[in-house]
Amino acid sequence: MAIQHEVAKGMLEAGAVELRPHDLFTWASGIKSPIYCDTRLTISYPTVRKTIAQGLAALIQEKFPTCEVVAGTATAGIPHAAWVADILEQPMVYVRSKPKGHGRGKQTEGKFQEGAKVVVIEDIVSTGGSSINAVEALNREGAEVLGVVSVYSYLLPAAIENFEKAGVPYYSLSDFEALVEAAEETGAIQKEDIPGLLTWYKDLKAGNLK
Q1: Cα–Cα separations (whole angstroms), residue 98 to 110, 125, 138, 161, 166
Q2: Tell me: the pLDDT tens digits for 89-116?
Q3: C-alpha closest to that of 63 among 156, 157, 170
Q4: pLDDT tens for residues 130-170?
C-alpha cells in the first residue's frame, strides 16, 4: 500500500479528518470547505502515529539523506519530530512561531552545531507560511535547512510557489486526493459525493473559493 494511502487511512481512523460534503466547515480564511483536518488527534493512536513517524523518517532518508537534526514546528509538529528523531537516532529541536519575549529571545529550543543540516517537520501545509517562518528562524540561528516534510498537504499552488520562492524543497506524506480515495474505500464518504469533493478541490487549487 502506498504510504499516501496508508497515512490517509490512519488519519481517518483517528478522526483527524472529517468530511462533510453537505454541511460545510468554515475555515479561518472564511472559505467554505467539506473537509477539516486536525492531525494532532493522530498522536493518541499508537499504530497511526507509528505509521506517520516511519513514513516521515523514510521520506527524510530518501530525500534528505545528509540530515543531521530533526526540527518540529510548534506545536503540532513537535511530537512527530520527536518520534522521527528517535527512529533516525538524531538530535531534535523545535521552532516557535515567534521569538520568546523574555530571556535570550530565542525562537528555537534544543541544541545544534553551527551549520548543522536540518529538516523541518510540519503537520499540515496549506500556503507554507508557517513552515517557511520556521526555516528562516533556523537559518538565522546558524542551521543549514535542507527542506520541509509534512504529514498532510493540500498541495495548493500558493504553497508550491512560496517554497520555490524561498528555495526550500518540500514533500508531504499524504494529500487531499489520497484522503478521498481512502474515504471511499473505508466508507467514510459515499461514492456519489466524490465528484463534488473533487470539484471543490479543483476550485480551491484554482483560487476560485473566497
Answers
A1: 15, 18, 12, 23, 18
A2: 999 999 999 986 565 668 999 999 999 9
A3: 170
A4: 999 999 999 999 999 999 999 999 988 989 999 999 999 99
Residue list for the binding site for 5-phospho-alpha-D-ribose 1-diphosphate: 96, 100, 102, 122-130
What pTM does this model have?
0.93
Point out the annotated binding site.
96, 100, 102, 122-130
Binding-site residue positions for orotate: 126
Residue for grid cell 476550485 = 203
